[in-house]
Amino acid sequence: MSNKTLALLTILLLALGAYVYFVELPEAEKEIAELHQQEENRKIFNGSRETLKEISLENEYVSFKAQKDSTWFFTEPIQDWADISNIDRVIGFLFDYKIERTISDSTLDLEKIGLEPPLVTIQFSYEDGTSEEIELGIGTPTKDFCYARKNDSKELILITSEILKASRRNLYYFRFKGVLTFSPTDANEISIETPKETFTILKDSLQIWEITSPFKASARSEMIHAKIIAQIFSMRAIDFGASNPGKNLGAFGLDKPSHTITLKKEGKVLDKIFFGKTRENLVYVNTENHQGIRLIYNTFLDHYQNFYQYRDSKLQEFDRDSIDKIRFTFDNQEIILAKNNEAWSMTKPLQKLVTSLNEPQGIMNMLYYTEIETLSPISKQKLKAEKFKKECKIELWSKGAKEFDVDFWLNGEKVFARSNSQEFIAQIKALKGYIEVLKPKLSTFVVE
């Protein structure tokens, strides 16, 4: 290729590059900018979702204002939590959707299309002090869009009719209908206080629930989740009482609650739920964090009878390895066995070594795996009904502390137990011979 040809090609390439740079590229950038501006012009609201601090909404059913802090909260006409999902639904339609069409010179009758007066007026206020407002009218014949007007503009616009459906609602729709602002599964300790008792459950490091009050026992996890956790989680307002009752709590029975549920996490109170008067199948409730009164189904009260239903099926939980003393009392006899350095010996009535580890260990295993048929609190009426007659008493000790203290007797073919430490009466799953094992002969333990 000659130098002349090469120079000519270079000039042509430079010219093409200059044309692209000075003509085509600016035109492309201009088109992109115009497209971007068109998209900006199609925005319904131009503000930032992150800086939105207040929403005002007025329709034929309600006029309210709500402010955002950690959550949305009504300031007018009530002071109460707002339903975040329903408020955010309105916000989303105005921030995430576009103007479908602008009607510059409209001859439409504003009254006939629901803009004079508007069906709905929505105003957003931002942290910098600015605000935006939109008025909504009726839907178009296709029902896909509705007529709207922004910031008192003479121009009409068409936007998604979904915003009309989301905003043309009453106050109940926008109110928070839950009782707690957190999930009850956040709590690792729950107490239920009634006029008769205080029942407390605690979740251990393995996420297993156990009863800590009125006595220590393993809990039935499926019952805890079904009858306590799930019931608290599903509490929803059917109606609302006073949002700020002040001294009028007595009118709802909340000055002296019938039940109080306290939810804690790592010892810190998350909230308390108070139950007041019932009304047919409903009950008034409020919480420590928020005094607004809600009327909910009293399903929880219907399900909660007493703590016994949440206890596991074991007669009593104890640590078999830590037991170092067993005391049998029956028929005016007393036998005491003591463990020292893994060896058992009899301390009463004879100072003899036991025959083996198997006998005391077998009795403890039998007690440990004993299950309950029925369970009820101790009462004179219950003892009389079950023909209480102490046939034998078993005590298990650990390091000087009594871990197990139970009386056993027979009522016909049924075996009953009365726990003196945990104060309950139980019919246990056992045959008549169970009692005989707990009334051992000295020869069972004495070394030959």
The tally of strands reads 27
Distance from N terminus to C terminus (CA atoms, Å) equals: 122 Å
Strand order of the largest sheet: 4-3-2-1-6-7-8-9-5
The geometry reads as elongated
Tally of alpha and pi helices: 9
Q: Structural class, from secondary structure content? A: alpha+beta
The biggest sheet amounts to: 9 strands, antiparallel
Residue windows where pLDDT falls under 50 for at least 5 positions? none
User: Helical residue percent?
Assistant: 10-25%
**What's the alpha carbon Rg, rounded to whole Å?**
38 Å
- What is the typical, i.e. mean, pLDDT? 88
Question: How large is the share of residues in beta strands?
Answer: 35-45%
In short:
The chain is of the alpha+beta class. 23% of the residues lie in helices and 35% in strands.
Summarize the structure in words.
The protein is of the alpha+beta class and 448 residues long. Helix content is 23%, strand content 35%. The protein contains 9 helices and 27 strands. The protein has a 9-stranded antiparallel sheet with strand order 4-3-2-1-6-7-8-9-5. The protein has a 9-stranded antiparallel sheet with strand order 13-12-11-10-15-16-17-18-14. It starts with a helix and ends in an 11-residue tail after the last helix. The relative contact order is 0.08. The mean pLDDT is 88.
Reconstruct the topology from this structure.
Elements: H1 3-41, E1 52-58, E2 63-68, E3 72-76, E4 80-81, H2 84-96, E5 101-103, E6 120-126, E7 131-139, E8 145-150, E9 156-160, H3 162-167, H4 171-174, E10 189-193, E11 198-203, E12 209-213, E13 217-218, H5 221-233, E14 237-240, E15 259-265, E16 268-279, E17 282-287, E18 294-297, H6 299-303, E19 325-330, E20 333-340, E21 343-348, E22 352-353, H7 358-368, E23 372-377, H8 380-385, E24 392-398, E25 401-411, E26 414-419, E27 424-428, H9 433-437
Antiparallel strand pairs: 1-2, 1-6, 2-3, 3-4, 5-9, 6-7, 7-8, 8-9, 10-11, 10-15, 11-12, 12-13, 14-18, 15-16, 16-17, 17-18, 19-20, 19-24, 20-21, 21-22, 23-27, 24-25, 25-26, 26-27
